[in-house]
Amino acid sequence: MTDKGAQQDKISLTAPARFLNLDLVLRSNSDLTPIIRYFGERVIVLTHEESNGNWILVLELADDPAQKEPAVYTERFLAMMSKFPEDVREFWEACTSRTFSYGFDGGVNSAALDTTIKADLLMQISRFGADIGITVYPFRQP
User: Fold this and answer.
1) Residue 139 — pLDDT band, cuts 50, 70, 90?
2) More exposed terminus of the chain, fewer Cβ within 10 Å: N or C?
3) For residue 33, is it left (φ>0), alpha (ψ between -120 and 50) or beta?
């Protein structure tokens, strides 16, 4: 094995657990385009599709690498949602499910990742009728 190959193996065997992203996952019986329009360029639309009369919309905040913390991303979404105009709020309330989906990289051979979503954020999420989902992605060799 070359020195470079050994270096890559050593790096990949100590990948840290870390927060990756926060997706807002919405399901509805209606097209959710008004919600997309409201968020505009502040979000990235990962999925917006209909299947058998059921719509799914998955949004992610436009990345701010300096603020890669679950609480910061949550606060940014909540701040925008708190200013929903009435017509957008109606589409939100008509959703059959609303989930703040937190994604984490599980890492390998690293210290455990400890993160907290504080009670005040949980209460705000709850006021919007949203659930919390957590996905931990397993280590994958590059």
Assistant:
1) confident
2) C
3) alpha
Q: How far apart are CA 20 and CA 103, in angstroms?
A: 5
Whether 121 is in a domain gets the answer: yes
DSSP state of 128: T
User: Which domain range does residue 132 map to?
Assistant: 17-137
With respect to residue 77, please indicate whether it lies within any of the assigned structural domains.
yes
Which tokens hold the place of 141? 């060799």
Residue 23: how many CB atoms within 10 A of its CB? 23
CA-based nearest residue to 60, from 76, 71, 84, 79: 76
Distance CA 39, CA 20 (A): 21
CA 7 from centre of chain: 32
- Bridge partners of 137, per DSSP, are 105
In a domain, 2, yes or no: no
Model confidence pLDDT, tens digit, residues 81-123 = 999 999 999 999 999 999 999 999 988 887 888 889 999 999 9
